[in-house]
Amino acid sequence: MSRLFATAGDGSVRVVENSPARSVLTSLLLAGVPIRHDCGGIARCGTCRVRVGGEGAGLSAIGASERERLEALKAPTGDRLACQARTARDLEFEILDSGEPGREGLGGHRGSD
Predict the structure, then answer these.
(1) What are the strands of the beta sheet with 13-18, ordered from one edge?
(2) ∠ at Cα 73 (101, 13), nearest 5°?
(3) Per-residue pLDDT tens over the stretch 12-25
(4) pLDDT digits (tens, 9 = 90+) for 71-108
(5) What is the pLDDT of residue 110?
């Protein structure tokens, strides 16, 4: 198990247990960490964007649908979609939108987990 260190907009940091078998989004939701995810985890909306410091070492490669969405958002290098990113290592990142999720809990999460 690795750990996610998620910094919210108010500066608070939540530490969450993570499995490489789950997306970062799923790990956050299971721990009750608020993060917006309007499309339910299928890389269509970009609302679950997180900003990863450094080079994002240990993160899964960016797939075509994630790259397309990030380019459409004109996201800077280091931004990832939490619904698509996976990691087996400890990871520090900032949640860019912890507003009201478009879908409640895991019921709306239709990722590949």
Answers:
(1) 13-18, 2-7, 91-95, 49-52, 79-81
(2) 45
(3) 999 999 999 999 99
(4) 999 999 999 999 999 999 999 999 999 886 555 444 44
(5) 40
**Domain 2-98 has what CATH class?**
alpha beta
Burial degree of 65 (CB within 10 A; 0-12, 13-18, 19+) = middle
Three-class SS state of 17: strand
Provide the terminal-to-terminal Cα distance of the chain, rounded to the nearest Å: 16
Q: What SS3 state is found at 21?
A: coil
pTM, two decimal places: 0.86
Q: What angle do CA 103, 87, 72 make, to 5 degrees?
A: 55
List, in order, residues 6 or more apart from 31 with CB less than 8 Å away: 14, 16, 17
Residue whose structure tokens are 């999460």:
109
